[in-house]
Structure prediction request, 211 residues.
Amino acid sequence: MADLAAIKKLVVDLEIDAITDAVKGALAANIPAEDILKALSEGMTEVGKLYEEKTYYLPELVLAGETMTTGIELLKPHLKANRASKGTIVISTVKGDLHDIGKNVAATLLTSAGFNIVDLGKDVEPKVIVDAVKKHNADIVALSSLLTMTVVEIENVAKALKEAGLRDKVKIICGGAPLNQELAEKLGADFNCDDAPQGVEVAMKIMAMKQ
Prediction:
């Protein structure tokens, strides 16, 4: 359908100012919200590929994420509540870290991939993360730490989950400039992700292993 192809292209072309009218027009034309969401997601997937190919960089990834999020907000009232989810992810930036661009991009990509995302924001206490895991029966905890001095908070979250008896029920993935796989494991996490698209790949693998 031409409208859906146009919506996908708007995400790829970073046309944030045009996405609202396009999505509203598609809804007015009685195109199912699920199909529009699929077009937005396909656009974001294409952006992810352009990012991996180094055609796009972080600013483009962020803008594409904002474009897609704008479209999703318009769709929310029209989406069926029982849309199948690939799993639930509690995501946040760790305590003491106020950076959230990478976390926001990851949340958008994971949403487009079909995950139910519980976004706790930035500078989040371990207890808040534990409470969210309990409340939402999460499968994965995703943590962002851009600062060297805050990576220890990943360990504090892992310990808090263990003390709550939840560590075996969730996988912890983390990302941020100071991190690598070896350090992530030392801090008690399961996986380190170098960027948001890799985060989606890892989350998919985790859920595939659970089935």
About this structure: The chain has a mean pLDDT of 91. The two ends are 34 Å apart (CA to CA).
